[in-house]
TrEMBL record:
It comes from the Bacteria. Coiled coil: none annotated. SUPFAM superfamilies: alpha/beta-Hydrolases. The gene is yjcH. It comes from Cohnella abietis. InterPro entries: AB_hydrolase_fold (IPR029058), Esterase-like (IPR000801), Mycobacterial_A85_antigen (IPR050583). This is Enterochelin esterase.
Length: 249
């Protein structure tokens, strides 16, 4: 079966030009599903920490199996790389590069992807996904750009006060659907901003999102703040939006 081109897994790498980012571009990687056809339109997943999602989260491997072995409809994945030294500055609302990164994401990355690949261009066919700060900035993007994003997967989101303050400012999030996961052993995790109880952060954020009318599905289970935990939960997370019987329609 693996010799048949219809089952081939394809990953392309690109440099997306940017007028917002000082470097002038950002590296991305794009997973194309088995049997990809340019004339078919596909749902699309946008990953923060793109390199990590592909290398440590094995999101392309998971997706290939779900499509081939479990009969899921095909989708495209866009992983957006990040310089780890600049990650906090780009992903947190009080960071020096936050506005530059989020404007690049919404105003440059999305149009570039939609002009180069046959991805669907409506909010309920775009899924944002991220881990830790990446999960939090995914929610932040959906709050800031409601006409672009309405679906988010957050894996152990680092929902610091700067994120909840942003959520509190909006009157309604009835358009938003969020699948949230946190590990019960993440209750004392050291970050570059101090040590936090991620379980409490996620519980509080879920409650806040619900109070604004968002639809959320919240999961707590044994797990630490690392890819060994998140990787195993990815199929369930993706199934909520892209599986044969999704939680969120």
């Amino acid at each position: 079966m693996s010799d048949n081109p219809i089952f081939k897994r394809t990953i392309h790498k690109h440099e997306v030009p940017s007028q917002f980012l000082p470097e002038g571009s950002r590296s991305i990687r794009v997973y194309l599903p088995p049997g990809f056809q340019q004339w078919i339109s596909y749902p699309v997943i946008y990953c923060q920490d793109g390199e990590d999602f592909f290398n440590f989260g094995r999101i392309a491997t998971h997706s290939q199996k779900l499509i081939l072995e479990q009969g899921w409809d095909s989708f495209i994945i866009v992983g957006v790389d990040v310089d780890k030294k600049l990650r906090t500055s780009e992903y947190t609302p009080d960071g020096d590069r936050y506005s530059l990164y989020t404007r690049f994401f919404a105003e440059e990355l999305i149009p570039w992807t939609e002009s180069h690949y046959p991805v669907r261009d409506v909010p309920d066919q775009r899924l944002l996904i991220g881990d830790s700060l990446g999960g939090a900035v995914s929610v932040s993007l959906a709050v800031a750009y409601p006409t672009l994003f309405s679906r988010v997967v957050s894996l152990s989101g680092a929902f610091y006060d700067v994120y909840t303050a942003q959520i509190e400012q909006v009157s309604s999030l009835e358009y938003l659907k969020v699948w949230m996961l946190v590990g019960l052993q993440e209750n004392e995790f050291a970050t570059d901003r101090g040590t936090f109880d991620f379980v409490e952060l996620n519980r509080n954020c879920k409650q806040l999102l619900d109070s604004k009318g968002a639809k959320s599905f919240y999961v707590e289970k044994d797990g630490e703040h690392k890819w060994g935990f998140w990787q195993n939960e990815l199929p369930e997370a993706l199934a909520a939006f892209l599986g044969p019987t999704p939680l969120f329609e």
